[in-house]
Amino acid sequence: MGLQDAVRWLLPKEDLFFEVMEKQTANIAKAATEMQKFRPGQGSASENAKKILEIEHEGDALLHRVEDALARTFVTPIDREDIQRLASMLDDTLDLLNETARSMDLYGLEVPSPPMLRLTDLIADAAKILADAMPQLRKANYPALVEANREIKKLEKEGDRIFRDAVGSLFRDDGISPKQLLRDKELLRDLEDALDSCEDVSEFLAHLAVKNG
Length: 213
Hints:
Layout: H1 3-10, H2 16-36, H3 45-72, H4 80-106, H5 114-133, H6 135-138, H7 142-172, H8 178-212
Helix pairs in contact: 2-3, 2-4, 2-5, 3-4, 4-8, 5-7, 5-8, 7-8
């Protein structure tokens, strides 16, 4: 056991970091679930974007709490660099969901295409896995974090396939307008990026499992 590990073990632990990370993954799952609600006959892109923006603001406040706590806390439950990176990655994921919802509104999307809906469902599934997995970091249940990463990797691979097939179909459709092609391709890319970001977080959690296990 190194000196820093010994000090961390002897002194009281700051659980705030775990609490904030768990709340942030819950926010990501909440935003992803809201995005799922934008379906044919269910709401509008504008309404959806407003709700997700509110969740994103909550996420910004949580990130600031982590930054403030890191500045005043001597002993952290895991390395402070890892806490800072994880907090930033979670914030990035929530930002991507917000940006995607805003783009759907900005581009005047009336109804998501079937591939968009499938990607949205995959994002919601991945976000739920993250939200369920994050408390395992506090419990030092590292095998659960590794398993969560495996599950999300499967979803991300499926998302890649959907994205490639959808973009290929857009370019093979002679009846589609250039404007719609560009819009749909951009939105599909945004959705895939959000799913990739969920995988990035899960990979980092798996890294922490190996590092601290």
